From TrEMBL:
Coiled coil: none annotated. This is Adenylate kinase. Residues 448-467 have a biased composition (Acidic residues). It comes from Diatraea saccharalis (sugarcane borer). Residues 441-470 are annotated as: Disordered. The lineage of its organism: Eukaryota, Metazoa, Ecdysozoa, Arthropoda, Hexapoda. It comes from the Eukaryota.
Amino acid sequence: MSSDKSQSEAENMLSFKRYFINNLDSYHGEYVLRELSKVLEKNAELSTKPTSITILAEDAEPTAPRPPEQLYEIIGTVSDSKVKTIDNVARIITKSECLPNMLTCGTVVFDISYDREELQIAMDYLKLLKELLEKQSVAGANTADFGDGDGESKKRYLILISTVMTWASTKPLDPDTPDLPFIETDFRKRKPHPNYKIHYDIENEVVGIARKYKTQIGALVVTTGVTYGGSEDVLFYWFQKAWECEKLLPILGRGGNVVPLINVLDLAQIIYNLITDFPKKLYVLAVEQNIVKQREIVKPLGRTAGSGMFKCITKEDAFLIPEINVNIIRIVGQQRIYDLMTVNLNMEPTFIVETMALQWTSELTFAENVPALMKQFKKERGLKPFKIIVYGPPIVGKTTLSKLTAEAYGLVYISPDTVAQDMLEDLTWRVDHWDVGEFAALPRPTGEEEDPDAANTDDDLGDEEGVQETARQTLAILRSGRLLTDEEIMGSL
């Protein structure tokens, strides 16, 4: 009984060796936890730490045994209530009880970039934290008087993971040079997208706390770009449809907008580096140095794993895509995926490059990384190609069975008897689509609505000219009735 009581008291006391992460089972949470688990290795060092031996005289008063040393531990919340245990996590806290537990943690990593339900928890926590810090400040309290410490820094730390959407409406720094990138010191000029004003307010609260209570807490905001890698999050729909060889992979609008990206492994490494060596910074941009447009995200996926065909769609059509609509509903009705894929921001991560000297997961561009990323995606999602051969004597229903099976499993039906006709129909469709153009569904931009990157939307046509020319030549041969050579068939495929 006494052991349970002492454990409960320890859990309710501030520990600078206790770390909190919200939504441990989320896309970001899993990778941040994986990196942050490195701090648990220090527990092994504590277990091998030599203990001092004191020899007492016969008439000396017996002294109380020294309490056991506090171990490093990670606690946090989960988005799926069915999750009861996670490796390397000491306790999973319910969201209704997380606020008092967060106040007992020396370091809090709180992510508001994904789930909008976390916004209220973040605001409530910041309110309680300010009240606590204010009381300690007024009373002249020293945080070293609380918790275990034991050689560790007697200071709280807070890292808020936010989104680049708090910059989405920021005007160019120089109207004459609209491509001039934003850097960390420009954060005071940032203007949020209308859907992300609460995120913006929470960021400002964290910055305000960091400035006012800098002797008691280290706090900063990490604004993350669109994360990718592993099982995927925002880009999941495009990875999935490319793998399924969707006939036309959609591009939202003209696709000339610059989308800040970062590999989720790099984001997790940035968080860990900040925790182990907390800087005197208020704001950090977690984005890659490579400038990547939306088209340069979607097209490499389609060409590497998909049909290689694309269609630019309007905002209204984007919201009719079931997979995107499901995600929008899940994130409390907000247009999260659409907003992130249509943002237009050029950002330069000066701190993580110049000061942190981050070791990037890959120095390659997103397009160059697509084969490796697709391989990771298939592994994480457990995706495997499904190939079926139907063999048997004539007139037993092979064709009917094959077509029904292909339709049921979303497979491509191929028959030796119809392969030439199928190729003819496919090439005819492709050439017709190229003739119409992938921008056909979009209204012609005029006046103020003109896309600032419209002049650059055709910058990848050179890559497609060879593909289109080969397809047109093959189509002409098929229409002439001449049989294709093996080389021509492989070239067309």
